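for the writeup, i need someone to sanity check this before i put it in the appendix. the sequnce is what the collaborator sent (i think, or maybe the updated version? ugh). structure was predicted straight from it, no edits. if anything looks off just tell me and ill rerun, i have time this weekend
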Amino acid sequence: MVSIDTVYQRVLALANKEQRGYITPQEFNLFANQAQMDIFEQYFYDLNQFRRLPGNDTMYADMVDILEEKIERFHQGQALSGTSNVFDTNNLNHELYRLKQVRFNNTSVTPYVGVKVEKTIHDKFMLARSSPLTSPTLMRPIYYLRNTSIIVAPAEITSIDVNYIRKPVKVEWNSLGTGLYVSGVDFELHPSEETKLVIKILGLAGITLKDPALYQIAGAEDNKNIQQEKQ
């Protein structure tokens, strides 16, 4: 977790250092949530890139391990019930970002077994169901995503176990009009992201304040951090 008030105070101190302008709490909250999602989404691009490179035996320095640790805090598991083999992801406890795995507990056999439901796309899903040779069964189920719905076959499946990556909760700094911090929702990102959050929020603030220098400084610092991480 990263304190929303700590980031807010640092952003204001840096933005006002040269009388660049004032960032309202409402503006800060918008910038803060954008910055959090930018950093969060970058994890997955970076993880894909670093998995292509040789790792090392030091768990504290291996970038794949570091990124997986940062993502793991957003991992959730939940059972879903559905009708007509359709499961609504809006019924998940948290907002879905990426679906990791779908499993089905096959109780038609004793002892019952957990079966992985294979992911496919709509066209292949329909094609598989149309052929007796590839038609999905309780031991070989399939699914595809349609907007916010998980469509599963065969139709007898009425409950599934879903493993997914959720989105970070929206952060909020609130003074209730007093100008002093009263309450808030902290960033859910790893504590090491505090400086990166400040830099990204300053960059977004530079656009609003029409201050190219602030935007350029934040952008340069952000690029430097990215280069250091990827060396």
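Residues 75-166 form one domain. The first strand starts at residue 75 and ends at 81.
thx in advance!!
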